[in-house]
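PROTEIN ENTRY
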Amino acid sequence: WIGRIWVEFFRNIPLLVLLMWIYYALPIFLEIEIGKETAGILGLGFYASGFYAEILRAGVQSIDRGQTDAAVVLGMGYFQRMKRIILPQALRRMVPPLVGQTIMQLKNTTLLSVLTIPDLLYQAGYIASFTYRPMEVYTVIGAVFILILFPLSALSRRFERKEAA
């Protein structure tokens, strides 16, 4: 039940709210200093953990119960069953959603600009303020994201087709 609360909390809170809360409120409540990079890493990490945990749980649970029963009959212990039977099958099913979630995480890094962490979007704003050419600058940033994320999307689709076959 602790895992379920963790997953539901971090899957349902907006990332921007989480980043702001970690950077501005948490230091007040805990009387500590948190750097913007640390706040960004914690925020993205906590946020992603809920989604990744749910993908992993669903992948393992998607394996037919008969596979586990067969492994038990063969005398395999829990870890041996997971290592040899369940996880190899589950991982094939998990790869497409894991890749998709990773793509979403890469796009979520643009929200770090609210903490003035110099990510691509922050740098674009900085350049646009000097050049007075925001359309061109943000178009280039969009193209950079496409160049980074399109191959990942294609890889995900390839895994999906392979799994369906």
Summary: The two ends are 36 Å apart (CA to CA). The chain has one domain: 2-164.
